[in-house]
Amino acid sequence: MGSASSTLTQYDIEDVQEHCNNLFSQQEIVSLYKRFCQLDRTAKGFISADEFLSVPEFAVNPLSQRLLKMVDGLNFKDFVVFLSAFNPKASMPQKIELIFKVYDSDYNGKVTFKDIMEVLRDLSGSFMSDKQIEDVLIKVMQEAGYNKDSSLLLDDFVKILDHPGLKMEVEVPVD
Amino acid sequence: MWKEGSVASLVAIQTSVFWNEHQPPFRKRKDVYAGALKGCRNRYKQVCSLEIFQKVFSTGSLFWLQLLNATGWKMSKLKSSNLELDLDRPNIEDYLHTDSIQEPLGKLRLRDLLDISPTLREAGGAIVDDSFTRCFKSNPPEPWNWNVYLFPLWCLGVVVRYGILFPVRVLILTLGWIIFLSCYIPVHLLLKGHDKLRKRLERALVELICSFFVASWTGVVKYHGPRPCARPKQVFVANHTSMIDFIILEQMTAFAVIMQKHPGWVGLLQSTILESVGCIWFNRSESKDREIVARKLREHVEGPDNNPLLIFPEGTCVNNHYTVMFKKGAFELGSTVCPIAIKYNKIFVDAFWNSRKQSFTTHLLQLMTSWAVVCDVWYLEPQNMKPGETPIEFAERVRGIISARAGIKKVPWDGYLKYSRPSPKHRERKQQAFAESVLRRLEDK
């Protein structure tokens, strides 16, 4: 699609729409493009980590570093695909897949005990000691039928997390 | 008689401004609908005419609002502003009330620990839209869906603005500078002994040159409220959209202002002419500067002969739809705070100076080639710190008064986040809330 400052034609929109399985409407894609161009201040065609961190709401998020690894350097098409997991119309497996990817930082398809501990450490900061996190995690994993050495796959995540209370919806503002 | 005249001029300006709003398609970026021309001609026509209809209708309704306002009728807010308000509310509450997130009851399970969806949702929401970046968004030029009859009229508008208005304005400004300098330099050099007289003359001359500046952009400024008077122990605070805020206020009263030292010709003006009005300089990047500046502020406020002090507590230019948090420096001087609210009418020109995108010279040139700069200035009731109020609470209260008067929204962010990252304590607050809820639920059996 070229650099971010290039045009967004009808063909481009339809291409992006296809790529994200028609989850976003054409107007939403136009809005997202405006937002992409707004964040990509130097018109490189992708948003750098620094530019993401210039959004204070994103920078104060405990999981910002993990998400940065996933969104850093994405072009617009992949940016929309990434955000499609937050669409209200996205399927539950798609949302859980995003959560899985956040945990699976080395992209080997498995989430180990250590991976979960690292995420919990990000979320709780200095307010929980490593020992406390480990104890809590061992306890709940045992209750769910896993132990310290088991590694969870995507199917396990779907089994654990699939419940109607899981809401991860972000509305794209359309002017 | 005056009202009819103003209505007539409003009609003239409104119609001509409708043209100004729309920029030429001589830009590299084609808009979406122009690209659709390649694919579906019918769709383009349908969309294009709908867009034009909406534009005309919305401009038309704004026009009626202006007209009725001018004739003294009260109008309720336009629907669009309500929509914007709803969009804003979720973001602010998310930030401010982190401890009001509903705590699911029950035993802690693996599912609850692994479920990071609320945090991810906040991050996703921040990527898609955030209240801080919105404060600094300048009005993007609308794509001009031009037809056969609109384009020539727009061209005529450009010719008038660049060919007639701009040279006249440059002429007025040059004239103003000549008059100003020919009076100021003698007064400054010759009346060294008679300080009181010199100060009075210099004040009048600064007000004069500011009036010339305002005339050079055809500034239509309506001042409401009692004019500021020079008394000790009082400071004036205002919301900040551009450096022209200072010029607009200065034309009415010669304030001493506290500003960031700028490079170039602006800096030259600052160090020569504004020095005589008693301005104070600071440097954003120097942290030690703060104590020195605080001391200078206090000294200025206490001096009975000094010009009234004007401070822009936001610390940075904001796009006049929002206010960012006020810095408490102006509110801990122990003096009365007189709020001033400034609101620009965006139809005429977007007066927001996006210092990241354009230099001040470009900004001035943009103003001088627009039709008019229309704004309202309200001088509001002086406020004192209530007993038991902290300076930060006082600052927030005054910000609330200014935002309410100008009809703009408040945002709980510090303006300096434009230049730096947020402090870790915001993240720590979230982390603490998470940790506490996990530990608490662990104990519930």
Automatic annotation (TrEMBL), chain A:
Q: Which domain of life is it from?
A: Eukaryota
Indicate the segments forming the EF-hand domain, all copies: 27-62, 91-126
Q: Which PROSITE patterns match?
A: EF_HAND_2
Against Pfam families, the record matches this protein to: EF-hand_7 (PF13499)
Single annotated GO MF: calcium ion binding
Residues annotated as transmembrane: none
Spell out the protein name for this chain: EF-hand domain-containing protein
Organism, as annotated:
Tagetes erecta (African marigold)
Lineage of this protein's species?
Eukaryota, Viridiplantae, Streptophyta, Embryophyta, Tracheophyta
UniProtKB/TrEMBL annotation, chain B:
What InterPro entries does this protein's entry cite? LPCAT1-like, Plipid/glycerol_acylTrfase
Tell me its family. Belongs to the 1-acyl-sn-glycerol-3-phosphate acyltransferase family.
Transmembrane recorded as keyword: yes
Segments spanning the bilayer are 146-164, 170-191, 203-223
User: What are the UniProt keywords, alphabetically?
Assistant: Acyltransferase, Lipid biosynthesis, Lipid metabolism, Membrane, Phospholipid biosynthesis, Phospholipid metabolism, Transferase, Transmembrane, Transmembrane helix
Asked if Lipid metabolism is a keyword of the record, the answer is yes
UniProt protein name? Phospholipid/glycerol acyltransferase domain-containing protein
**Gene Ontology biological process terms from the UniProt entry:** phospholipid biosynthetic process; triglyceride biosynthetic process
Q: Which GO terms describe its molecular function?
A: glycerol-3-phosphate O-acyltransferase activity
* Localization: Membrane
> Which Gene Ontology cellular-component terms appear in the entry?
endoplasmic reticulum; membrane
Q: Which residues form the Phospholipid/glycerol acyltransferase domain?
A: 234-345
